[in-house]
Design brief:
five-stranded antiparallel beta sheet, 62% helix
Amino acid sequence: MQSRVARIIASALACVALCAAAFILVSSEQWLAERRAALSAFDLHAHTASQRLSDARAGLHAYLAAGQSTTFWGPQVSSAIQDASSALDTLRSLATTDAARQSLLDTSAALTELANIDSRAREYVSTHDTLMASDIVFSDGSQAAADAARDVDATRTTEHQEYEFVEASIRRREAYAAGGAALFSVLVLLSLACAPAPQIVTPAIVDAEPVNDVPPHEASRPVADTPAPATALATPDASLLQATAELCTAFGRLHDAAELKALLASASRVIDATGLVVWLGDPSGADLQPVIAHGYSDEVVRRMKAVPRSADNAAAAAYRTGTLQIVPATATRALGAIVAPILSADGCIGALTAETRAGAERADSSHALVSIVAAQLSNVLAGSVHTESSPARVASA
């Protein structure tokens, strides 16, 4: 968990786990809501079927009541049987279990038989055969209607039991998903909380004004001549080492100034600097001249002036002492700076200033990267110091 990449990956996995759990919860609740609506519709049609079966049974009994006739009650019974049959067809389409669908199919067959019983009962009533009509109505007819209503109620109970079983299973799955995601997220948070904080070198802070009338965020910073405290370098990750190695290789294959500008841009990315300036003098102590810059506007580059060796700023201090200088960021100065001397076999020939975001100037890894780039610049620029008494200014990269 000490690696920033590892922390990002762990945090992303925690987010994925939480999103997956949320998706399971939402989709499960939507399915349960749809199933509850279907179950309510099933109950409604089951009630309709039971009610119409009860009406058909009552109509059959009315055939034999004094003062009643099949002329009135016959259509009533036929309509009740037809409505009950339609309700059963709808129930079969809403049923979720094979057992319920088979039971409803058997009930539909029983309704067909009930319709036949109704026809026979009417015939006996029309011929005034009351005894046979009573036998059919009170035995076969009543029994068939009662059995059909009981089967409908049993099917309704089966559907409710099936829903309750499925709902319990889904609730368990939701609990497992939510609990697992929460546990994983807690473990990630604990791992991040318990990870050791990165070591930060705290150098002596010296506040001063910037030089050359350049805005504070676009100039090198003054600092005391005392170098920053030496500490063990933090171990860089493999990608940073690879980028640094490729940068050194590119410096070794450098051909012209245009390529140097591009390399300075690459060096700025590796160091994670907001701006770089190469100051060039000579071993005898000539004034520092800004020969190439990256990350600054043309206006700022034009305002940069020569810096005497004795000047009270970080570039002059590095040039004068041959040691690394740092300028910590402060509450009023958002950017810090690292200044590395450019050393040749004859002595210090210049300085490389790197403005960094607050805090980066205190890191040993940043110190090492700036020093490496300065060493590569020494190999490139040492020849120009001996062949030119006054190095030419180079435009900003």
